[in-house]
Amino acid sequence: MVYHERGAWAGLIGAIATVSIYAVLVLTGARGGELAAVDWFPPMLWSIGCGVGVSIVITILWGIVAGIRDRASATASDIRDRDVARFGGRVEHALLGLAGIGVIVLCALGADVFWIASAMFLGFAVSTFVGGIARIVAYRRGLV
Q: Collapsing DSSP states into helix, strand and coil, what is residue 23?
């Protein structure tokens, strides 16, 4: 497995961790009440920080293990990696654009700030997750 594919897997794990942590923190903060009444900003920041941290730690540890096994190919990169990265980026940007439209619609409807921020947060997480899936599929099956 090449360096960039390991990074895509780490990003997937980080995205899952980010959304999971945020959901748990918000749901426990609501205590069965209205979600919009929860102080959502600190849990969101902590979730994003923890998700990024998880991705970084996984990437570093996986890179160390790969470097021990085969030092030369642990960080090797070629044109295929660039093409896969572009493909994954296009998928991410498309989904992020859709999330942005959803946020604009929520603003136009006068939704609570909690829902607007959570929609954008979820849009970032889903675009990262689906973009990572697209990269992994491209590595495994190739680009069409």
A: helix
DSSP, collapsed to helix, strand or coil, labels residue 64 as: helix
d(CA 97, CA 2): 29
pLDDT at 32: 86
The series of mean pLDDT values per 10 residues for the chain, 144 residues long, is 87 93 94 91 94 93 87 79 94 96 98 96 95 94 83
> What tokens does 3 get?
């360096």
Q: What is residue 71's predicted lDDT score, i.e. its pLDDT?
A: 79
According to DSSP, residue 37 is labeled G
Q: Is 32 left (phi over 0), alpha (psi -120 to 50) or beta?
A: left
pTM (two decimals) = 0.85
Q: Which domain holds residue 21?
A: 3-141
DSSP 119-135: HHHHHHHHHHHHHHHHH
- Total domains in the fold of the chain: 1
Q: Give, as one character, the DSSP assignment of residue 38.
A: S
**Residue 110 to residue 100: CA distance in whole angstroms:** 15
